[in-house]
C-alpha cells in the first residue's frame, strides 16, 4: 500500500496494516463504495473493505477475523 492508498478511517487502516503484517495482500481499487480488498493468495479468498462503513469498529473486526482465519495460509 502506498501513501495515497491509506484508508480514511483510523480503525480500518490499523486493521489493514495488521493484515499486511500477517502476510495478506491489501489492494486499493476504489470502486464506488468499496475501498479495496484483503486477499489470501494461497487460498484465493478475499474480504471486501468499504470506504465509508456504517461502523468502523465492525469493519475493522471483519478484517481481523479474516486475518485470524487465514494467518496460517499466508
Structure description:
- The protein has 74 residues and is of the alpha+beta class.
- It has one domain (3-70): TATA-Binding Protein, CATH 3.30.310.
- The protein is built from two helices and three strands.
- It has helices at residues 10-21, 56-70, and strands spanning 25-31, 34-40, 45-50.
- The protein has a three-stranded antiparallel β-sheet, covered by helices on one side.
- Strand 1 and strand 2 (34-40) form a beta hairpin.
- It starts with 9 loop residues before the first helix and ends with a helix.
- 27% of the residues are buried.
- The model has no long low-confidence stretch (mean pLDDT 90).
How is the topology of this model organized?
Elements: H1 10-21, E1 25-31, E2 34-40, E3 45-50, H2 56-70
Q: In terms of structural class, how would the helical and strand content be classed? A: alpha+beta
The figure for the number of domains is 1
Question: Which CATH C-level class is it?
Answer: Alpha Beta
Q: Which strand order spans the largest sheet, edge to edge or round the barrel?
A: 1-2-3
Q: Percent of residues in helical segments?
A: 25-40%
Distance between the termini: 17 Å
- The sequence of SSEs as H and E is HEEEH
Q: In the CATH hierarchy, what is the architecture at level 2?
A: 2-Layer Sandwich
Average predicted local confidence, pLDDT: 90
**Strand elements, count:** 3
Amino acid at each position: 500500500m502506498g501513501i495515497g492508498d491509506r484508508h480514511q478511517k483510523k480503525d480500518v487502516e490499523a486493521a489493514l496494516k495488521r493484515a499486511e503484517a500477517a502476510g495478506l495482500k491489501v489492494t486499493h481499487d476504489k470502486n464506488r463504495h468499496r475501498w479495496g480488498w484483503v486477499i489470501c493468495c494461497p487460498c484465493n479468498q478475499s474480504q471486501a473493505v468499504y470506504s465509508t462503513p456504517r461502523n468502523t469498529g465492525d469493519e475493522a473486526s471483519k478484517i481481523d477475523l479474516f486475518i485470524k482465519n487465514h494467518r496460517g495460509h499466508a
